[in-house]
Design brief:
By secondary structure, the chain is of the alpha/beta class. Helices cover 39% and strands 17% of the residues. It has eleven helices and nine strands. A hairpin with a 7-residue loop joins strand 8 and strand 9. Helix 3 crosses helix 4. The longest helix has 19 residues. The N and C termini lie far apart (34 Å).
Length: 255
């Protein structure tokens, strides 16, 4: 994986030469992504060196077109059922947004059952959104910078029972508003539990501008997709990401 690290540094260097402008991350704790572990978990967006990334770029561009029409920048990523690839999709989409010149991106782990984003990227994190909600930490204390320009992440810390009440609370609405306003031209991507296995995504939906649903080809029953669509706000639904049932699991954009 040494070559992967070198290639990634080359990508950043070339981007700077082409006019890449990075925010200052002096208030965010720096962490180091384990590139080998991330690649093993299919987090391919960090390097942009595989064909699969092109599909995420197309998905990003579709989202950006919709966002211009609807003036939106907060997006909830969920699925109908577990195991459909929503968290990996959220991670790869965040990396892809970070490569776009005019926007920054904040990726937020809102799955209080497992807090998985930092684990898939191979770094340790003892604080997360739950700590900010409980008042133990401020928002700036839980945001980390993984060394990728224009990308910050919130993931880690405590898991929380009865999290639907937390996610649907006015205090959570305030936290989301703070994330949305922190930087201009920012997209905020929220990874939520599956719609049909908990009430969390439904409770959180009022605080975001848009909802993106991940389904897996050949696995997710049509009736479950239909049930999931029925319980999320139709005016916020912007489309599906269909994970193909292949070795590379390339996404299909259905926006």
């Amino acid at each position: 994986m040494k070559n992967t690290s070198q290639d990634f540094k080359g990508i950043i260097k070339n981007a700077k030469l082409e006019g890449w402008v990075s925010p200052v991350y002096d208030e965010s704790r720096p962490v180091r992504i384990n590139l080998e572990e991330a690649a093993g978990n299919r987090c391919v967006g960090i390097t942009g060196l595989v064909q699969e990334v092109e599909h995420y770029k197309i998905l990003r561009n579709h989202i950006m077109l919709v966002s211009e029409k609807r003036n939106m920048n907060t997006i909830m990523i969920t699925s109908a059922l577990p195991g459909e690839g929503k968290t990996v999709t959220a991670i790869n989409l965040a990396f892809t947004f970070a490569k776009e010149f005019n926007h920054t991106v904040l990726l937020v782990d809102c799955d209080f059952y497992q807090q998985k984003i930092h684990k898939l990227l191979g770094y340790e994190s003892e604080v997360g959104l739950g700590d900010a909600f409980k008042g133990d930490r401020s928002l700036k204390d839980i945001i980390v910078w993984p060394g990728v320009e224009k990308l910050t992440i919130i993931s880690g810390g405590r898991t929380i029972p009865n999290s639907a009440e937390l996610l649907g609370s006015p205090h959570m609405q305030e936290l989301v508003s703070g994330m949305k306003a922190r930087y201009p031209e920012r997209f905020v991507l929220f990874d939520l539990p599956p719609v049909l296995t908990s009430a969390d995504a439904i409770a959180f939906a009022p605080w975001v501008d848009a909802v993106l649903m991940v389904v897996q080809a050949g696995k997710t029953p049509f009736q479950d997709i239909k049930r999931a669509l029925e319980v999320i706000p139709q005016e916020k639904f912007i489309g599906f990401v269909l994970n193909q049932h292949t070795v590379k699991r390339k996404p299909y954009y259905g926006i």
